[in-house]
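User: Some background: our group keeps a shared notebook of sequences we're curious about, and every so often someone picks one and asks for a predicted structure to add to the entry. Today it's my turn. The entry only has the sequence so far, pasted here. Could you supply the structure so I can complete it?
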Amino acid sequence: MNEKVKNVLETILEKFKTGDIPEAIAYSMLPVPDDLPSAKWSLLNRTLMFLSGTHDGRGYKQWNKANRYVKKGSKAFHILVPFFRKVEEEGETSEVLKGFMVKPVFRYEDTDGEALEYEQIDMGELPLIQKAEQWGLNVKAIPGSFSYHGYYSSGRSEIALATKEESVFFHELAHAAHEKVKGKLKGGQDPLQEIVAELSAQALSRIVGKQPNDTLGNSYRYIESYAEKLKIKPYNACMKVLGETEKVLTLILKEGEA
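Assistant: Of course. Here's the predicted structure to add to the notebook entry:
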């Protein structure tokens, strides 16, 4: 086996040992905007990208085309690409997969140059962002799509946002606070945890003086979808998590609480 290919596969195996793979695969499954090169990557390569600490990986020339340039001394990470060879049989030419080779790509974080579209979120203006910073959370902008707007990653101590909507930030901040309250959250999108986060987000929107009337319908449908998984009505679901929600809000709003 090619030594470089072997090293890439060993990286994956090592992450299985440390327990990082489930989270990496979960976030790598999020839809990638069509205009990003990684939208055409395999799940394995998107997982390698996430494990490398970025949401946007591109080759040297691809970054140049976006008017960004790889910083001197930056180290590439490698993805696996199929290697095909043309074969002629009975007068017909076809391509046959002969194996895989590695391709060096660079993280967005290792480039300088023209700002990308998804960077236009001004994190500094988000209400309560100081609380996230106080908890050691990195709040960063990421490319997103209509299917998702952000997430909270416990393992990476980060809140990633693909929108400047405060309610989305509040939802992810609530997940971080809920983890502090409980000690540990369940993996994946647990219905009760999601309802706590969405209920907290709507409450925080009002507490800080925002009135997101245009998002109330979306919030209700969001809560309703998770209530259906619990086979209870949305009102009963909210009542079920009211105590947990109160703890989350108290922690977020408590002055000086780390």
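Suggested note for the entry: The mean pLDDT is 83. The radius of gyration is 22 Å.
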